[in-house]
Amino acid sequence: MSVRREDRVRPPAELLEAVRAEIARAGELPPERDLSERLRIKRHKLRQTLQFLRQSGEIPQTAPGRRRSPGTPLGQSLARLTNPIEIIEMRSILEPAFARLAAIRASALDIARISQAATTPQNSDYGLADAAFHQAVAIGARNGFAAAIYDIVRKVGRDTRMTLGNMPPICATRLARRDAEHGAIAAAIAERDPDQAERAMRAHLAAVQRQINDRLTPGTSAA
Fold it and tell me: What is the pLDDT of residues 102-152, one digit of tens each?
């Protein structure tokens, strides 16, 4: 089977990095139209870049047919079947493995993106900054199929968060604690320590699960 020429061409390094940065910032792969407009590049150039990233395992392969989202019947049905506790339980299964794989497989650029995303930018959206970090770790694991499953989990998780009510204001202490937990994960990945990366991710997600439990059952946590 022959390989098309456009699939063999490595896009310019600066374009690859720009696309990776946009994916990490959004926490998922944005629509092609939005991505091409933000980066001011032609759609065919963008498609070549995305194809290269898919072949390298950095982003999931596209399935034939129309792209599904949480707004489709599939996404809506999944959101109805689950709850925030189940979502964080699934994340606790997937993400420690991603952190372990990232410590082994991530490129220097992957590690740079993970390290940068570990610190929440000033005046940024709290949820988007968190998603960008975890997405960067998932990309660094370089397993396209696992990343595709994870993408579904996070999308459904964004729907189920509506059942938790309005998010309280994020205090500086809580933000600093989250950044410290992200930083510990990023440091272990940068040091190529898969055991520590897995432990740090597991500890971080356990803290997230405690926060979810506290919001679902207020007044039951220890002081």
Answer: 999 999 989 998 999 999 888 777 787 898 899 899 989 998 888 888 888
Report pLDDT digits (tens) over 18-34: 887 777 666 667 888 88
136 belongs to a structural domain:
yes
CATH number at residue 83: 1.20.120.530
Q: Are 137 and 188 in contact (CB under 8 A)?
A: no
Tell me, yes or no, if the pTM score tops 0.85: no
Contact call for residues 50 and 19 (beta carbons, < 8 A): yes
**Domain residues for 47?**
10-55
Cα–Cα distance, 5 to 189 (Å, whole number): 35
CB 162: neighbour CB atoms within 10 A?
A: 10
Q: How far apart are the first and last CA of the chain?
A: 64
Q: How many domains does the chain have?
A: 2
Q: Is 59 helix (H, G, I), strand (E, B) or coil?
A: coil
Q: Is residue 4 part of a domain?
A: no
Asked if 57 contacts 163 with a C-beta cutoff of 8 angstroms, the reply is no
Give the model's pLDDT for residue 32. 86
Q: Are residues 140 and 199 in the same domain?
A: yes
